[in-house]
Amino acid sequence: MSTDVTDKSPAAAPPGKGGGAAGTGLLQLVLDGLRRNMRQYGMLLALGLIVAVFAVWTDGDLLLPRNVSNLVLQNSYVLVLAIGMMLVIIAGHIDLSVGSVTAFVGAFAAVLTVEHHVPWPVAVVLCLAAGALAGAAQGFFIAYLGIPSFIVTLAGMLIFRGFTEILLQGQTLGPFPDGLQKIGNGFLPEAGPNTNYHNITLLLGLALIVFVVVQEFRDRGRQQEFSLEVVPRNIFLLKLVAIVAAILVVTMLLASYKGAPIVLLVLGALVVGYGYVMRNSVFGRHIYAIGGNLPAAKLSGVKDKKVTFFVFLNMGALAALAGLAIAARLNAASPKAGLNYELEAIASAFIGGASMSGGVGTVLGAIIGGLVLGVLNNGMNLLSVGTDWQQVIKGFALLAAVGFDVWNKRKSGS
Amino acid sequence: MAGPVLEMRSIVKTFPGVKALSDVTLEVRQGEVHAICGENGAGKSTLMKVLSGVHPHGTYEGEILFEGEVCRFRDIRASEQHGIVIIHQELALVPYLSLAENIFLGNEHARSGLIDWNRTLRHASELLRRVGLADHPETRVADIGVGKQQLVEIAKALSKKVKLLILDEPTAALNDEDSGKLLDLILELKKQGITSIIISHKLNEIRRVADSVTILRDGRTIETLDVKAPETTEDRIISGMVGRDLDHRFPERTPHRAEEGAAPALEIRNWTVLHPIDQQRKVVDDVSVHVRRGEIVGIAGLMGAGRTELAMNVFGRAYGRYAGGTVLKDGREIRTRTVSEAVRHGIAYVTEDRKHYGLNLIDTINRNISLTALGKVARRGIVDEHEERQVAEGYRTSMNIKAPTVFEPVGKLSGGNQQKVVLSKWIFAGPDVLILDEPTRGIDVGAKFEIYTVIDQLAAQGKAVVFISSELPELLGMCDRIYTMAAGRLTGEVPRAEATQEVLMRQMTKDKEVTR
């Protein structure tokens, strides 16, 4: 065991109060923030590094508007799955069935719309319900009968893959009606004068910036209202500028091609929504509590079974959404769709800071983890690296990310 | 009389922040049964862990001599090579392996890595016969009772050519019949020349098997008595165990005057709980207790008395199987079959094991405090983070939780500060009745005083407090009334004025007879 002295900076000045020490005080604050969110910033940094490296290697091709748009479309379903998987892993479980469930829902959608000509909006609703039901069924066995999630979802993986093949009778089924296709590879409609940019996307970006700025200021106001300490004004403004800049860059990139893909909007809504739920809702807190220490959560009156059940129900619904997106994008339902997606989703969650023992992780982390994998995929494709080596490299990336995590934890002695 | 086979001289053992042993001396004669007794936390188990090498040489001060030789054990293996074998309170058997496999685990009869089953089984049956077990050596451990398992542990010790056998509270989990058998076996082994050290606080057991008894208190040796001598009475042993004076370690409190007529805030009637696995065993047997508003009621008892089991079963069946009894809140019968039901009725249970049952160690102070009553800082299912933080900051100040911010993970706090977080969490839930289970276990004196003060304030605010503790001085210093339990039964109820450590200890060590 490490016997390192925890206080490594005996010489460091205490956080400054006077004007002269304001500089060090500021730095201290930033460093404190960084240290507390080491994992998250570390991954964000790694993502930035990977993007930069591939941008150089591909002579900038990686960051061409068309490619960024592609990258989003290619990875959206893994990202959707990663959000749900993050919740499952935080709760201390695992879900191996999501790949099969996505395939199953794709097949279900094809049977409904192609064979039975059900209107596509109705089919979408039915498909989401089917996914939620698949998740709920597994959640029931896990939460109420106490069968380990690994076993239940391993069974689910076989069962839903089997159902997929039964539904499709081994065939590929397509094409889908136009409306459904739009979900997978559609873009926002265009309107207004020709500006060389996609107007609606620009407007949307602008609206987002206004919304974020207003939210941040309101939040700051509320903090002061509760007479809590707030971050110094200049740091707060710096943070705002950074956020606004990031939104602007992405908006411009997308607007200079065909505009924002619909999938991206859906994904954005999911990230914001789930991020909020996990951070601010009672339900989200209870997920962290049962994953962090189940006996303590039970003794605090958390209804652990109900929470577990809904986490799996939710995973099923998200898997259905991903299934619809894949099927729509490929414009066909195939018996082999979604193969290994569960593993990509699980890898994303762990790269993004989840812990095997549960209780840790954020939705944003899952997205960063998924993007690391996505950029690796896309970048290596641009460089024409074979899928054989792609797998090897992705494997090492996962190992390195989690290895760093373990090393970092041991160093901090907790 | 034979000379000493074991001498432990001036043993000092410190854990971070706590001095578990400060100057313990122990002398055990060849071929005797030597009992060690003392209150919970007196240092008995730590001393035996030092002796057996669980705490290796170099992590303690002092000297150990075994058979006249100075010993410096690096680990358990080293002490076992000298013939010192310890049997811990929690049995160390693998449930799904056979008796024979367990007996020779780590010490297999093998030739070039392959187990010689004939020799293993023959030798195993021989050892099982020696401890009085007729079961086939291929029986799985899971299929025999706890009493027999204890005997298997002894067989395992015998296989290691044991000279000094250490038993840590061997009968704590056994019924009378099994206890009897075990004690007989210890006497039988004594005839075969095996020296035993037995840690126990059941005085009748000590009288039955032991030749001498060493009493520990607060990490020190108090005295060693000859059990067979006429002047060694149970009272003599008890006064040795508790003989410590009460100093000003408790806040001044005005004793509660019970308002006659008003129904108790909480009343538990005829409560019985069965062991979760061994359902023949009653861990709580027909216990009735009550507590009034503004009153602090203690429950005293030694390990295995059933105090925690009672509290946890009442609190949403969190432990064991319910087998009868009713709960009344302010005179009306209530149901507490789930934790959330109990919380809704204004009952809080603050666990004795904060790390496993009380806190989410990887989460922050504010989130731990708000967990039980998240609804109070949430609107329509959405937590107001700022309000939550304000609440947590309030407790950080009022409870004096030493942490730079409320965003610190509780796993990084000291035991005392963690305990304050657990208390804050339950106070925030706004209960009428607080059941505090060993609220000061493993924390330093300063933090203890702060926690006593908080408890006193809670009672002054009109809350009913049930105070479960193994430390008699704190019960005497804090409680208006004290119940005693032993072996799952209520053995007494003592008002503050009549309570002394001797009175309580006598009722806590009472085995099997009910007086009321």
Provide an overview of this structure.
With 414 residues, chain A is mainly alpha-helical. Chain A has 16 helices and no strands. Chain A has helices spanning 22-36, 38-57, 65-90, 98-115, 120-143, 149-168, 178-185, 199-225, 233-255, 262-280, 282-292, 294-299, 304-330, 341-351, 363-382, 387-412. In chain A, α2 runs parallel beside α15, α3 (65-90) packs parallel to α10 and α4 runs antiparallel to α5 (120-143). Chain B is an alpha/beta fold and 516 residues long. Chain B is built from 17 helices and 25 strands. Chain B has a six-stranded mixed β-sheet with strand order 6-9-10-3-11-12, with helices on both faces. Chain B has a six-stranded mixed β-sheet with strand order 19-22-23-15-24-25, sandwiched between helices. In chain B, α4 (117-130) packs across α5 (146-159) and α8 packs across α17 (501-508). The interface between A and B is medium-sized, with 30 and 39 residues.
Describe, in short, the structure shown.
The complex is a heterodimer of chains A (414) and B (516). Chain A has 414 residues and is mainly alpha-helical. Chain A contains 16 helices and no strands.
Low-confidence stretches of chain B: none
CATH architecture of the largest domain in chain A: Orthogonal Bundle
Structural class call of chain A reads mainly alpha
Largest sheet of chain B: 6 strands, mixed
Count of β-strands of chain A: 0
CATH topology of the largest domain in chain B: Rossmann fold
Oligomer: heterodimer
* Helix percent band of chain A: over 70%
Estimated share of beta-strand residues of chain B: 25-35%
Radius of gyration of chain B from CA coordinates: 25 Å
Number of domains of chain B: 2
Find the biggest chain interface.
A-B, 30 and 39 residues
What are the defining features of this structure?
heterodimer, A: 414 residues, mainly alpha, ABC transporter involved in vitamin B12 uptake, BtuC, 16 helices, globular, disordered N terminus, B: 516 residues, alpha/beta, Rossmann fold, 2 domains, 6-stranded mixed beta sheet, 17 helices, 32% helix
